[in-house]
Amino acid sequence: MLARTFFERLLPILVIVAFVFPLQVQSISKFESAKVLEIVDGDTLKVNYEGKEESVRLIGIDAPESRINKKAKEDAKRSGEDLKTIIAMGREATT
Question: Rounded CA gap, 14 and 7, in Å?
């Protein structure tokens, strides 16, 4: 009886997923293009998109900073690495 109750609760969720998933696939299938103008650092780009310069931040990428700033100092403190090492790794991530 317990197993039946579990599947009875799961069925409406599976039905919703079955209807929602195809909609997500359709929205993903549209491709956009942009020209990369500059690589700012390991996780940020400048692009030309529809005639305008835009800044693009790559989600899920946490590259070290390539310039001395507040975040670079925080990264050095958090990791125990020398600030110069952090900046060097950030510049390497840019190339």
Answer: 10
Rounded Cα–Cα distance for residues 43 and 32 (Å)? 19
CA 6, 9, 11, 15 torsion-angle sign = negative
Sign of CA pseudo-dihedral 70, 76, 78, 79: positive
Which residue did the predictor score with more confidence, 46 or 4?
A: 46
CA distance 62 to 24: 27
Q: Which two tokens stand for residue 84?
A: 């110069």
Q: What is the pTM of this model?
A: 0.52
pLDDT digits (tens, 9 = 90+) for 18-31: 565 554 444 555 67
> Which amino acid is present at 45?
L
- In three-state secondary structure terms, 35 is strand
